[in-house]
Amino acid sequence: MNSEVRLLLKARDAAFKSGDTEDYSRARTNLKWGIRKPKHAHKLHIEEHFHNNSDPRQMWKGTQTITDYKPSIQSLPTSNAFLPDELNHFFARFDKGVIQHTRNADSSTVVHPISLSPTEVHSALSRVDPSKSAGPDGIRRRVLRTYADQLAQVFTDIFNLSLSQATVPTCLKTTTIIPVPKHSSAERMNDFRHVALTPIVMKCFEKLVLSHLIACLPPTLDPHQFAYRPNRSTEDAISTAIHPALTHLDTSNTNIRMLFIDLSSAFNTVVPVVGRISNNDESAYREEIQSLSAWCSMNNLTLKATKTKELMVDFRKSSSSRHSPIYISGSEVKHVSSFKFLGVHISEDLSWHQNTSTL
Asked: Where is the Reverse transcriptase domain positioned along the sequence (predicted)?
């Protein structure tokens, strides 16, 4: 309601009190059209947020205005004064006891360091999103983008010097870790997800180096690697996990055991292990799990047995006996009738009823 509508309301009330029928009817008509005008203006204002589909920030702002959305603010418990130190030790626990394996460089091999051009650096600085927050160094994204012409040569010299000396400046390695609660009642250290806030300059540097590294990669990459590769998606990962199971079940006297392994503090990674079992021979399946567990121990990864689940698919009418459980680090893996993998519910009967009902 604006000032013009308020004046029309007062005029209508005055006409009603005066008892003049024509004046009252005219005041009501004026009020009716007076309300339509600001409503139409508000409608156009909201639609402006959706005209530019390439700007999701404006679209989300328009959606918030329409739905009157107010996000709930989660605050960390402040009663524990030692919480910051405890979080630091918890997030840095993988750095303890790590053995650095080094090898002598072959003197006969000539290594040419990556060299970046001012054009590449200028392009990276020009693509910086100015709407996001600055890093721990306090350098604003808008500054890097606005003055890309002046800063391109400066950062080119810094980046090339860092590459030639194989040393990253300390100011670029400084990272602010922000603990974000996974749910409202965060009590343990594992209830927080750490979000790293890194310098914007370092992000540009990493993207430039990444483009050179990708060009040097061989074409024979692991076919089961779907992340950070073009033309790959979660649908490919799901199909790769389900298709071998369906193909194997076409053979008589076969069953499937799918183990969804959860890796601790590995970006919520869930690795599926599909055991294609024939004639009740599970030796290869169990050896694969033991090998994976040993490899994770050698590479400082922790298998979370409590969050690891196993799904069994067995359509045999004469199932011989109860399937023996799987153990990881002495803990029994829980058997489930369905599991949500990459947003898709996979059930033990391989049907889509549960998945479609949750959409």
From this structure: 180-270
Residue 290 one-letter amino acid: Q
| Token pair of 242 as six digits | 């389900």
For 221, the token pair is 């990459």
Stated pTM of the model: 0.52
Least confident of 61-70, 97-106, 137-146: 97-106
Alpha-carbon distance 241 to 350, whole Å?
A: 12
User: What is the per-residue pLDDT for 269?
Assistant: 58
Task: Give the contacts of 242 (CB within 8 A, at least 6 positions apart).
Answer: 346, 350
In Å, how far are 118, 124, 209, 211 from 216, measured between CA atoms?
21, 20, 11, 9
Distance CA 86, CA 80 (A): 10
Task: Name the nearest CA neighbour of 195 among 132, 121, 140.
Answer: 132
Cα Rg, the chain, nearest whole Å: 30
* Residues 139-165 pLDDT 10s: 888 899 999 999 999 999 999 999 988
What are the residue ranges of helices labelled H in 52-115? 56-67, 83-91
| Tokens coding 188 | 């343990």
Burial class from Cβ neighbours inside 10 Å (0-12, 13-18, 19+) for residue 346 reads buried
CB of 200 closer than 8 Å to CB of 134: yes
For 196, the enclosing helix (H) or strand (E) is: strand 192-197
> Scanning the structure block, which residue is given the tokens 């689940």?
309
To which H or E segment does residue 275 belong?
strand 270-278
